Here is the input.
Amino acid sequence: VVFSASPLVNDKATVGVVVAFRDDTERREADSERTAAEKELRRANEVLSQFAFAASHDLQEPLRMITSYSQLLVKGYQGKVDEQTIFCMRIITDGTKRMGDLLADLLAYTQLSGEEEDPDQPVDLNRIFENTLDNCRAAIDESAAVITSDPLPTVSGHEPHFLQLLQNLISNGIKYRGDKTPRIHVSAARIDGLWRLAVADNGIGIAPEYHHKIFGVFKRLHGKMIPGTGIGLAICQRIVERYHGQIWVQSEIDHGATFFFTLAANETKA
Here is the structure.
């Protein structure tokens, strides 16, 4: 029971008191249930992180062995076995490589928790953009992609997070390019105390009914036609939400896609 008392006063003196007793059982039970749920959620997240770590390390090794020995068989028996056998061996190699990529991306996704040992630091997104271009150089050269950027702000956070964010969005713009030379532009605008950044491409586009679904883990719209694990955009969403922002897409089929995301503005340095 919660007890409260408030005086009643007129122009000259206190003339009385209002006393209230409120049954607080329901609120306290709700608080207790919420605390228990939060504790269980933290425990589940810890278990998931431990599983992802084990998957990345313990399961990667047998996958590497399968891949290595499959490749040895293909090379060692070239010309000695039929084409069907060679084809099956290559399917095994491709499957284990894809599984390795999935495990690596799953680990990256689960490690993006809201808690960091190190405090946030100023991050110049112009430098992140240049590093992203370096990391994507092979894909850029292969596709002759034209990637440009407006001046970008400095925000607070961790450099690897923003590098992963921009790299996923830009590499997607290259990957889903269709028949046209890919053109990707990164821009930023200050809106209501936030930075709203946009990564726009001229690719194959995304139908409106899939705009929300694509941010789910393992959600892929094109099957095996276009390589990937289906975790990239889920990682982008997790990064943006880690910094209390939002991410969304505007797109239509054959009209490219623009991915928007918001970040808190760094008041000390724009």
About this structure: The helical segments are 25-58, 60-76, 83-110, 125-135, 137-143, 159-175, 232-242. The mean pLDDT is 83. The first helix runs from residue 25 to 58. The two ends are 51 Å apart (CA to CA).
